[in-house]
Amino acid sequence: MARIPLSKSQLTREKEGLASYQRFLPALDLKRQQLMTERARARRNIAELRDKLAAMPAEVGEAIPMLADRRIELSGLARVKAVKLGTQNVTGVRLPVVEDVEIERTTYGYMVRPHWVDALIDRLETALKLRVEVEIAERRLAVLERAVVRVTQRVNLFDKVLIPQARENIRRINVYLGDAERAAVVGAKIAKRKRETQVTS
Fold first, then answer.
1. Class for domain 8-160+175-189, per CATH?
2. Which of 32, 68, 83, 109 is deepest in the core (most CB within 10 A)?
3. Which residues contact 121 (CB under 8 A, 6 or more apart)?
4. DSSP-based three-state secondary structure for 157
């Protein structure tokens, strides 16, 4: 630990520092709690999106049993053309949000493929949008994870290092100044007695 000057001016600085740390810590801790709540919400959202995505093949197979016919070419019917992202500010942390997903449908002749291919493309479009949402939700979670770690480190710095250190410095300075004051009083009394004994003799 660096040596600090044991003076009244340093005592004032330490008290001011302690007051500002104690003022800042609750706000920082609140931010950490809000980020942890948002992180839990992001995890739930990812789980829900993944469940929806996992349930889609069975749902499509049930709704369109004609998919079992392997003779019909179904590849490349739809693809993600563009994804428009925005940002959401959560307690000072910028998180990505999906604003729009543009899906490009492959054009095909209606006489070439059966009528149920349109319903399949609609479901493919939904699945592609869900995949994009899962990917962005995972990115969002990664940003939240880093933010929680960073804010937790700051909370710990204030709570476990800066505040105890300031309190200890204040205690040391108070002890030193108290000892110095007592030594000055004792010195003054000794000097007074010496003067008194010199006057009487």
1. mainly alpha
2. 32
3. 77, 78, 105
4. helix
